[in-house]
Amino acid sequence: MRDLTDHDSLYAALLARDPAYEGVALVGVTSTGIFCRLTCPARKPRPENCRWFADPAQAQAAGFRPCLRCRPQGAQAEAHPLIVQLTRALEAAPGRRWSEADLAARGLDPSTVRRLFHRHHGQSFLQMARAARLRQGMATLHQGGAMIEAQLDSGFDSASGFRQAFRALFGHAPHEMQGGADLRADWIDTPLGGMIAIADDSALHLLEFVDRKALPQGLRRLSALLGGRIGLGRTHVIDRTEAALEHFFVGRDGRLDLPVHLHGTAFQQRVWRELLAIPAGQTRSYRQLAAVIGQPTAVRAVAGANGANRLALVVPCHRVIGADGTMTGYAGGLWRKEKLIALEASYRAETGKSRNKG
Protein backbone atom coordinates (compact mmCIF):
# COMPACT_ATOMS: atom_id res chain seq x y z
CA MET A 1 0.00 0.00 0.00
CA ARG A 2 1.17 3.56 -0.65
CA ASP A 3 2.53 5.59 2.22
CA LEU A 4 0.10 8.44 2.83
CA THR A 5 2.70 10.25 4.92
CA ASP A 6 5.10 10.56 1.96
CA HIS A 7 3.99 14.05 0.95
CA ASP A 8 6.57 14.51 -1.82
CA SER A 9 5.71 11.26 -3.63
CA LEU A 10 1.97 11.92 -3.34
CA TYR A 11 2.35 15.47 -4.65
CA ALA A 12 4.44 14.21 -7.56
CA ALA A 13 1.70 11.67 -8.34
CA LEU A 14 -0.87 14.47 -8.18
CA LEU A 15 1.09 16.57 -10.69
CA ALA A 16 1.50 13.54 -12.97
CA ARG A 17 -2.15 12.49 -12.53
CA ASP A 18 -0.80 9.02 -11.85
CA PRO A 19 -3.59 6.40 -12.26
CA ALA A 20 -1.69 3.98 -10.01
CA TYR A 21 -3.02 6.00 -7.06
CA GLU A 22 -6.68 5.51 -8.01
CA GLY A 23 -8.43 3.87 -5.09
CA VAL A 24 -5.39 4.45 -2.86
CA ALA A 25 -5.18 8.17 -2.11
CA LEU A 26 -7.25 11.34 -2.35
CA VAL A 27 -6.11 14.93 -1.97
CA GLY A 28 -7.88 17.55 0.14
CA VAL A 29 -7.16 21.15 -0.85
CA THR A 30 -7.22 23.42 2.19
CA SER A 31 -7.56 26.62 0.14
CA THR A 32 -10.85 25.46 -1.44
CA GLY A 33 -12.18 22.90 1.06
CA ILE A 34 -12.58 20.35 -1.76
CA PHE A 35 -11.13 16.84 -2.08
CA CYS A 36 -10.25 15.16 -5.37
CA ARG A 37 -8.78 12.11 -7.02
CA LEU A 38 -5.11 12.50 -7.83
CA THR A 39 -6.08 12.17 -11.50
CA CYS A 40 -8.46 15.14 -11.35
CA PRO A 41 -8.10 17.45 -14.40
CA ALA A 42 -8.57 20.58 -12.29
CA ARG A 43 -5.73 23.06 -11.75
CA LYS A 44 -3.24 21.67 -9.24
CA PRO A 45 -2.94 23.25 -5.78
CA ARG A 46 0.27 24.36 -4.12
CA PRO A 47 1.96 21.57 -2.10
CA GLU A 48 1.43 23.32 1.23
CA ASN A 49 -2.33 23.30 0.59
CA CYS A 50 -2.57 19.52 0.21
CA ARG A 51 -3.75 16.92 2.69
CA TRP A 52 -3.93 13.21 1.90
CA PHE A 53 -6.69 10.73 2.65
CA ALA A 54 -7.22 7.02 2.06
CA ASP A 55 -10.93 7.24 1.23
CA PRO A 56 -13.83 9.72 0.83
CA ALA A 57 -15.12 9.08 4.37
CA GLN A 58 -11.83 10.33 5.87
CA ALA A 59 -11.83 13.42 3.67
CA GLN A 60 -15.43 14.28 4.52
CA ALA A 61 -14.83 13.70 8.22
CA ALA A 62 -12.05 16.29 7.98
CA GLY A 63 -14.51 18.81 6.53
CA PHE A 64 -13.74 18.58 2.81
CA ARG A 65 -16.41 18.50 0.06
CA PRO A 66 -16.21 16.19 -2.97
CA CYS A 67 -15.05 17.67 -6.27
CA LEU A 68 -17.80 17.94 -8.90
CA ARG A 69 -15.36 17.31 -11.76
CA CYS A 70 -13.61 14.07 -10.76
CA ARG A 71 -16.37 12.79 -8.40
CA PRO A 72 -14.07 11.16 -5.82
CA GLN A 73 -17.00 9.42 -4.13
CA GLY A 74 -17.55 7.31 -7.22
CA ALA A 75 -16.22 3.89 -8.01
CA GLN A 76 -12.47 4.24 -7.54
CA ALA A 77 -11.82 0.52 -7.21
CA GLU A 78 -12.39 -0.20 -10.90
CA ALA A 79 -9.52 2.10 -11.80
CA HIS A 80 -6.94 0.49 -9.53
CA PRO A 81 -4.71 -1.69 -11.71
CA LEU A 82 -4.28 -4.47 -9.14
CA ILE A 83 -8.04 -4.81 -8.59
CA VAL A 84 -8.69 -4.71 -12.33
CA GLN A 85 -6.08 -7.41 -12.92
CA LEU A 86 -7.47 -9.83 -10.35
CA THR A 87 -11.18 -9.27 -10.96
CA ARG A 88 -10.64 -9.91 -14.66
CA ALA A 89 -8.73 -13.10 -13.83
CA LEU A 90 -11.60 -14.21 -11.60
CA GLU A 91 -14.18 -13.48 -14.29
CA ALA A 92 -12.16 -15.49 -16.82
CA ALA A 93 -11.90 -18.56 -14.53
CA PRO A 94 -14.61 -18.40 -11.82
CA GLY A 95 -14.05 -22.04 -10.87
CA ARG A 96 -10.35 -21.66 -10.13
CA ARG A 97 -9.20 -22.40 -6.59
CA TRP A 98 -7.04 -19.39 -5.74
CA SER A 99 -4.46 -19.27 -2.95
CA GLU A 100 -2.00 -16.76 -1.57
CA ALA A 101 0.73 -18.71 -3.40
CA ASP A 102 -1.05 -17.91 -6.69
CA LEU A 103 -0.97 -14.22 -5.84
CA ALA A 104 2.71 -14.37 -4.94
CA ALA A 105 3.42 -16.15 -8.23
CA ARG A 106 1.98 -13.10 -10.00
CA GLY A 107 4.44 -10.89 -8.14
CA LEU A 108 1.77 -9.60 -5.75
CA ASP A 109 2.00 -9.24 -1.99
CA PRO A 110 -0.94 -11.23 -0.53
CA SER A 111 -1.29 -8.88 2.46
CA THR A 112 -1.49 -5.86 0.13
CA VAL A 113 -4.10 -7.62 -2.00
CA ARG A 114 -6.08 -8.49 1.10
CA ARG A 115 -6.10 -4.93 2.45
CA LEU A 116 -6.94 -3.38 -0.90
CA PHE A 117 -9.88 -5.69 -1.59
CA HIS A 118 -11.18 -5.29 1.95
CA ARG A 119 -11.07 -1.52 1.55
CA HIS A 120 -13.00 -1.45 -1.72
CA HIS A 121 -15.07 -4.64 -1.67
CA GLY A 122 -15.51 -5.38 2.02
CA GLN A 123 -13.92 -8.83 1.63
CA SER A 124 -10.65 -10.36 0.50
CA PHE A 125 -9.97 -11.52 -3.04
CA LEU A 126 -9.81 -15.13 -1.83
CA GLN A 127 -13.26 -14.76 -0.25
CA MET A 128 -14.59 -13.41 -3.54
CA ALA A 129 -13.07 -16.38 -5.37
CA ARG A 130 -14.64 -18.82 -2.91
CA ALA A 131 -18.07 -17.19 -3.42
CA ALA A 132 -17.66 -17.54 -7.19
CA ARG A 133 -16.97 -21.27 -6.81
CA LEU A 134 -19.94 -21.69 -4.49
CA ARG A 135 -22.13 -19.90 -7.01
CA GLN A 136 -21.17 -22.51 -9.63
CA GLY A 137 -22.06 -25.31 -7.24
CA MET A 138 -25.46 -23.74 -6.59
CA ALA A 139 -26.13 -23.61 -10.32
CA THR A 140 -25.34 -27.32 -10.68
CA LEU A 141 -27.67 -28.27 -7.83
CA HIS A 142 -30.38 -26.01 -9.22
CA GLN A 143 -30.16 -27.85 -12.55
CA GLY A 144 -30.58 -31.21 -10.81
CA GLY A 145 -26.93 -32.18 -10.72
CA ALA A 146 -25.54 -34.67 -8.24
CA MET A 147 -23.64 -33.57 -5.13
CA ILE A 148 -20.29 -34.67 -6.55
CA GLU A 149 -20.90 -32.63 -9.70
CA ALA A 150 -21.72 -29.55 -7.65
CA GLN A 151 -18.63 -30.14 -5.55
CA LEU A 152 -16.36 -30.38 -8.60
CA ASP A 153 -17.97 -27.40 -10.35
CA SER A 154 -17.40 -25.22 -7.29
CA GLY A 155 -13.75 -26.23 -6.97
CA PHE A 156 -13.84 -27.76 -3.47
CA ASP A 157 -11.56 -30.70 -2.69
CA SER A 158 -14.12 -32.60 -0.62
CA ALA A 159 -17.86 -32.93 -0.23
CA SER A 160 -17.53 -31.91 3.40
CA GLY A 161 -15.78 -28.68 2.36
CA PHE A 162 -18.58 -27.86 -0.05
CA ARG A 163 -21.28 -28.65 2.51
CA GLN A 164 -19.52 -26.55 5.14
CA ALA A 165 -19.32 -23.50 2.86
CA PHE A 166 -22.91 -24.01 1.71
CA ARG A 167 -24.19 -24.33 5.28
CA ALA A 168 -22.26 -21.21 6.33
CA LEU A 169 -24.05 -19.26 3.61
CA PHE A 170 -27.57 -20.67 3.88
CA GLY A 171 -27.84 -22.29 7.29
CA HIS A 172 -28.79 -25.56 5.55
CA ALA A 173 -26.81 -28.44 4.09
CA PRO A 174 -27.17 -28.67 0.27
CA HIS A 175 -29.25 -31.86 0.29
CA GLU A 176 -31.87 -30.13 2.44
CA MET A 177 -32.53 -27.59 -0.31
CA GLN A 178 -33.35 -29.88 -3.22
CA GLY A 179 -36.82 -31.00 -2.13
CA GLY A 180 -40.10 -29.14 -1.82
CA ALA A 181 -39.97 -25.78 -0.11
CA ASP A 182 -42.16 -22.81 0.75
CA LEU A 183 -39.67 -20.29 -0.66
CA ARG A 184 -37.12 -20.49 -3.44
CA ALA A 185 -33.59 -19.06 -3.33
CA ASP A 186 -31.30 -18.23 -6.21
CA TRP A 187 -28.18 -16.23 -6.94
CA ILE A 188 -28.24 -12.97 -8.90
CA ASP A 189 -25.03 -11.46 -10.24
CA THR A 190 -24.71 -7.66 -10.07
CA PRO A 191 -21.89 -5.18 -10.73
CA LEU A 192 -21.50 -4.87 -6.93
CA GLY A 193 -21.25 -8.60 -6.30
CA GLY A 194 -23.48 -11.63 -5.97
CA MET A 195 -26.84 -11.39 -4.23
CA ILE A 196 -29.19 -14.02 -2.84
CA ALA A 197 -32.86 -13.51 -3.74
CA ILE A 198 -35.59 -15.41 -1.90
CA ALA A 199 -39.20 -15.26 -3.04
CA ASP A 200 -42.43 -17.18 -3.32
CA ASP A 201 -44.91 -16.79 -6.16
CA SER A 202 -46.22 -13.44 -4.92
CA ALA A 203 -43.44 -11.43 -3.24
CA LEU A 204 -39.74 -10.97 -2.63
CA HIS A 205 -38.84 -11.87 0.97
CA LEU A 206 -35.07 -11.32 1.02
CA LEU A 207 -32.41 -9.75 -1.18
CA GLU A 208 -28.90 -9.65 0.31
CA PHE A 209 -25.30 -9.45 -0.83
CA VAL A 210 -23.74 -12.87 -0.31
CA ASP A 211 -20.80 -11.50 1.68
CA ARG A 212 -22.97 -9.91 4.38
CA LYS A 213 -22.04 -11.54 7.70
CA ALA A 214 -25.64 -11.68 8.92
CA LEU A 215 -26.91 -13.49 5.83
CA PRO A 216 -26.89 -17.08 7.23
CA GLN A 217 -28.68 -15.89 10.37
CA GLY A 218 -31.26 -14.06 8.28
CA LEU A 219 -31.89 -17.12 6.14
CA ARG A 220 -32.42 -19.36 9.16
CA ARG A 221 -34.74 -16.82 10.78
CA LEU A 222 -36.80 -16.46 7.63
CA SER A 223 -37.14 -20.22 7.23
CA ALA A 224 -38.18 -20.65 10.89
CA LEU A 225 -40.64 -17.76 10.67
CA LEU A 226 -42.49 -19.35 7.76
CA GLY A 227 -42.38 -22.86 9.18
CA GLY A 228 -40.58 -24.40 6.21
CA ARG A 229 -37.25 -24.75 4.46
CA ILE A 230 -35.82 -22.44 1.85
CA GLY A 231 -35.20 -24.43 -1.33
CA LEU A 232 -33.09 -23.79 -4.40
CA GLY A 233 -34.96 -22.62 -7.47
CA ARG A 234 -36.64 -19.71 -9.19
CA THR A 235 -40.00 -18.01 -9.18
CA HIS A 236 -41.23 -15.34 -11.56
CA VAL A 237 -40.66 -12.79 -8.75
CA ILE A 238 -36.93 -13.63 -8.75
CA ASP A 239 -36.90 -13.25 -12.54
CA ARG A 240 -38.54 -9.84 -12.15
CA THR A 241 -35.99 -8.91 -9.48
CA GLU A 242 -33.05 -9.84 -11.70
CA ALA A 243 -34.47 -7.82 -14.61
CA ALA A 244 -35.15 -4.81 -12.35
CA LEU A 245 -31.60 -4.90 -10.96
CA GLU A 246 -30.17 -5.02 -14.48
CA HIS A 247 -32.16 -1.92 -15.45
CA PHE A 248 -31.13 -0.21 -12.21
CA PHE A 249 -27.40 -0.74 -12.68
CA VAL A 250 -27.32 0.34 -16.33
CA GLY A 251 -29.14 3.55 -15.46
CA ARG A 252 -32.56 2.82 -16.97
CA ASP A 253 -34.74 2.78 -13.87
CA GLY A 254 -33.97 3.65 -10.25
CA ARG A 255 -37.30 2.58 -8.78
CA LEU A 256 -36.89 -1.21 -8.27
CA ASP A 257 -40.66 -1.42 -8.05
CA LEU A 258 -41.16 -5.00 -6.85
CA PRO A 259 -43.71 -6.80 -4.67
CA VAL A 260 -42.15 -7.29 -1.25
CA HIS A 261 -43.04 -8.97 2.01
CA LEU A 262 -41.62 -7.07 4.99
CA HIS A 263 -40.71 -9.34 7.92
CA GLY A 264 -40.25 -7.17 10.98
CA THR A 265 -41.84 -5.40 13.93
CA ALA A 266 -44.46 -2.72 13.42
CA PHE A 267 -41.83 -0.04 14.11
CA GLN A 268 -39.34 -1.55 11.65
CA GLN A 269 -41.97 -1.76 8.95
CA ARG A 270 -42.87 1.91 9.43
CA VAL A 271 -39.21 2.84 8.91
CA TRP A 272 -38.87 0.57 5.88
CA ARG A 273 -41.97 2.02 4.25
CA GLU A 274 -40.49 5.50 4.61
CA LEU A 275 -37.30 4.22 3.00
CA LEU A 276 -39.38 2.98 0.07
CA ALA A 277 -40.67 6.54 -0.36
CA ILE A 278 -37.18 8.06 -0.86
CA PRO A 279 -36.65 8.63 -4.60
CA ALA A 280 -33.45 7.50 -6.29
CA GLY A 281 -30.91 10.30 -6.19
CA GLN A 282 -32.15 11.68 -2.87
CA THR A 283 -30.99 10.98 0.69
CA ARG A 284 -32.35 11.37 4.20
CA SER A 285 -30.72 11.47 7.62
CA TYR A 286 -31.69 9.18 10.48
CA ARG A 287 -33.07 12.20 12.29
CA GLN A 288 -35.26 13.13 9.32
CA LEU A 289 -36.66 9.59 9.18
CA ALA A 290 -37.41 9.62 12.88
CA ALA A 291 -39.29 12.91 12.48
CA VAL A 292 -41.31 11.63 9.51
CA ILE A 293 -42.59 8.59 11.42
CA GLY A 294 -43.60 10.86 14.31
CA GLN A 295 -40.89 9.75 16.78
CA PRO A 296 -38.20 12.45 16.57
CA THR A 297 -36.24 11.07 19.54
CA ALA A 298 -36.02 7.53 18.13
CA VAL A 299 -32.93 8.19 16.01
CA ARG A 300 -31.04 5.14 17.31
CA ALA A 301 -34.06 2.89 16.85
CA VAL A 302 -34.38 4.11 13.26
CA ALA A 303 -30.72 3.29 12.68
CA GLY A 304 -31.34 -0.18 14.14
CA ALA A 305 -34.29 -0.73 11.80
CA ASN A 306 -32.09 0.32 8.90
CA GLY A 307 -29.53 -2.31 9.86
CA ALA A 308 -32.23 -4.98 10.15
CA ASN A 309 -33.42 -4.46 6.57
CA ARG A 310 -33.19 -7.69 4.56
CA LEU A 311 -34.22 -6.26 1.18
CA ALA A 312 -31.06 -4.47 0.06
CA LEU A 313 -31.48 -1.88 -2.72
CA VAL A 314 -35.24 -2.54 -3.00
CA VAL A 315 -35.80 -1.06 0.47
CA PRO A 316 -33.10 1.59 -0.04
CA CYS A 317 -31.41 1.88 3.34
CA HIS A 318 -28.27 3.01 1.46
CA ARG A 319 -30.02 6.37 0.92
CA VAL A 320 -29.72 7.22 4.61
CA ILE A 321 -26.61 9.26 5.47
CA GLY A 322 -25.32 11.22 8.42
CA ALA A 323 -26.93 14.53 9.36
CA ASP A 324 -23.72 16.27 8.30
CA GLY A 325 -23.80 14.62 4.85
CA THR A 326 -21.14 12.01 5.59
CA MET A 327 -21.47 8.35 4.65
CA THR A 328 -22.41 6.23 7.64
CA GLY A 329 -22.54 2.52 8.30
CA TYR A 330 -24.02 0.22 5.67
CA ALA A 331 -24.27 -3.53 6.18
CA GLY A 332 -23.38 -4.13 2.54
CA GLY A 333 -20.13 -2.16 2.94
CA LEU A 334 -19.46 1.57 2.70
CA TRP A 335 -17.76 1.04 -0.65
CA ARG A 336 -21.08 -0.19 -2.05
CA LYS A 337 -22.94 2.71 -0.47
CA GLU A 338 -20.59 5.20 -2.14
CA LYS A 339 -21.10 3.57 -5.52
CA LEU A 340 -24.87 3.44 -5.16
CA ILE A 341 -25.09 7.11 -4.16
CA ALA A 342 -22.88 8.03 -7.14
CA LEU A 343 -24.99 5.91 -9.51
CA GLU A 344 -28.23 7.40 -8.27
CA ALA A 345 -26.92 10.93 -8.74
CA SER A 346 -27.45 10.29 -12.46
CA TYR A 347 -31.14 9.57 -11.81
CA ARG A 348 -31.42 12.87 -9.98
CA ALA A 349 -29.79 14.66 -12.91
CA GLU A 350 -32.16 13.03 -15.40
CA THR A 351 -35.16 13.98 -13.26
CA GLY A 352 -33.99 17.59 -13.24
CA LYS A 353 -33.64 17.60 -17.04
CA SER A 354 -37.15 16.20 -17.46
CA ARG A 355 -38.60 18.89 -15.21
CA ASN A 356 -36.79 21.65 -17.13
CA LYS A 357 -38.14 20.32 -20.43
CA GLY A 358 -41.63 20.26 -19.01
Overview of the molecule:
The protein is α/β, with parallel strands linked by helices. The chain folds into three domains: 7-73, DNA Methylphosphotriester Repair Domain (3-Layer(aba) Sandwich); 74-175, Orthogonal Bundle (Arc Repressor Mutant, subunit A); 179-358, Winged helix-like DNA-binding domain superfamily/Winged helix DNA-binding domain (Arc Repressor Mutant, subunit A, Orthogonal Bundle), CATH 1.10.10.10. 44% of the residues lie in helices and 11% in strands. The protein is built from 14 helices and ten strands. The chain has helices spanning 7-16, 56-61, 81-92, 100-105, 110-121, 125-142, 147-153, 159-170, 215-225, 236-249, 266-276, 286-292, 299-307, 334-357; strands spanning 26-29, 34-37, 50-53, 65-66, 183-188, 195-199, 204-209, 230-232, 284-285, 320-321. The strands form three sheets. It has a four-stranded mixed beta sheet with strand order 3-1-2-4. It has a four-stranded mixed beta sheet with strand order 7-6-5-8. A hairpin with a 4-residue loop joins strand 6 (195-199) and strand 7. The N and C termini lie far apart (50 Å). Mean pLDDT is 81; it is low at 351-358.
